[in-house]
Amino acid sequence: MIIDTHPTILLSTAYLPPVQWFSKLVANPVVYVEQWESYHKQTYRNRCVIDAPEGPIALSVPVEKPSDGSRLVKDMRISDHDDWRIKHWHALESSYFNTPFFEYYQDDFRPFYERRYEFLLDFNEALIHKCMELMGIDCELRPTGQFLDPDEVTAGKELQDYRYLISPKVGIEKDPGFIPEPYYQVFSDKSSFRPNLSVVDLLFNMGPEAILVLGRSCAQSQ
């Protein structure tokens, strides 16, 4: 499903990205994912935010510094520290077991927490493609071949750069192209709508309608 054709989008890699990140895939036929930037801590590159009864919680994939000293995101290896795979899967089960579609999709996601991926980029990419498949998103993801300087991207106008705009440190109001469409959430009886959680929150709560919510969250479709 593609809503419209726009200048090509540039995104950072992300672990189970937020709805805002996925809305760019629905609105654009081609999206580039940065491979060559320096790794940034405390971002969606290795962190997702899911719902929970007490409020949103962050799940972070631990990474270890490459032995050669590289800080490029493409070289970041996943650490086996602290049984994080078990903890992340248990957190997803605990938060979403009672959602309408967790039981339907759980076998699609469980293998990602049983297999060991060496590189963060590969793990993120595999999960992103699985989410795209489940939601029926028809978008071509292309890796960047070199680091694209933000100033050059802005000056060139061929790309719209969201690598640093889609971030837990930046409010969604800074992105005029994203207007989060409210949808049913399993804890809605305990709180108001919580926007821009991980796309799995949308998928487990809305199932096949997830792509429609993504489409309505794009400003041009309002």
Decide which structural class fits the backbone.
Answer: alpha/beta
Q: Report Rg.
A: 17 Å
Distance between the termini: 16 Å
Instruction: Please list the strands of the largest sheet in the order they lie side by side.
Output: 7-2-1-8
- Poorly predicted parts: 1-5
**Strand-residue proportion:** 5-15%
- Number of H- or I-type helical stretches: 7
Helix/strand order: EHEEEEEHHHEHEHH
Q: Which outline best applies?
A: globular
Average residue-wise pLDDT:
91
What is the share of helical residues? Answer: 25-40%
Q: Count every beta strand, where a strand is a DSSP E run of 2 or more residues.
A: 8
Biggest β-sheet description: 4 strands, parallel
Keywords:
222 residues, alpha/beta, two-stranded antiparallel ribbon, 31% helix, globular, disordered N terminus
Overview of the molecule:
The protein is α/β, with parallel strands linked by helices. The protein is 31% helix and 12% strand. The chain is built from seven helices and eight strands; from the N terminus they run E-H-E-E-E-E-E-H-H-H-E-H-E-H-H. The strands form three sheets. Strands 7-2-1-8 form a four-stranded parallel sheet. A two-stranded antiparallel sheet has the order 3-4. Strand 3 (47-50) and strand 4 (57-60) form a beta hairpin. The longest helix is centred in the middle third of the chain and has 16 residues, at 120-135.
